[in-house]
Amino acid sequence: MRKLQFALLLFLGMFLVITTTTEAQRITAGGGVGYGSKSEDVNFQVNAYYQLPTLPLRIGGDVGFVRPKDDLTEVETNLNVHFMALDTELLSIYTITGLNVFYARFSDGETSSSETDTGFNLGAGGELDLGFGRGFGEVKYIAGSDREDQWVFGVGVRVRVSN
Predict the structure, then answer these.
(1) Rounded distance, CA 113 to CA 100, Å?
(2) How far apart are CA 43 and CA 153, in angstroms?
(3) Using an 8 Å Cβ cutoff, are 85 and 96 in contact?
(4) Stated pTM of the model
(5) Segments forming the whole domain that contains residue 146
(6) CA angle at residue 88 from 86 to 92, to 5 degrees?
(7) 49-73: buried (b, 16+ CB within 10 Å) or exposed (e) per residue?
(8) 121-152 pLDDT tens trace
(9) Number of domains making up the chain
């Protein structure tokens, strides 16, 4: 758990450094919901991305939380690179490549155990301008341990971060 907390703090620290030293219109942040084909769980996620100024690439990540159930807590983190195949004011289409880290903790009051798995994700997504932000939809395949090999579908909204 301490490794996961450290990774999350590092990610948030890097995001704060990027937001204070770059152009705001290049940074988007948002949230959404996702569904895993194998886990059959709905998760809630927050995400942040930075558009590189001279390349058709966007870097960032997301953290997803599954509603705790039966003394089980699950957190999924993705560090991603988006290759922007099409990027206009109205519509964006991109591929997704990244690192996936999955953390699960079971505690029944008497005993406690945790597990951390890593894997890779590959997929594609699209964004559509909604006026107040950009709605997104993504599909990706997570290849990792037996527990995490699954298709993941996600939808949500990202907005530009302003100063």
Answers:
(1) 20
(2) 10
(3) no
(4) 0.79
(5) 2-160
(6) 50
(7) bbbeeeeeebbbbbbbebeeeeeeb
(8) 999 999 999 999 999 999 999 997 656 688 99
(9) 1
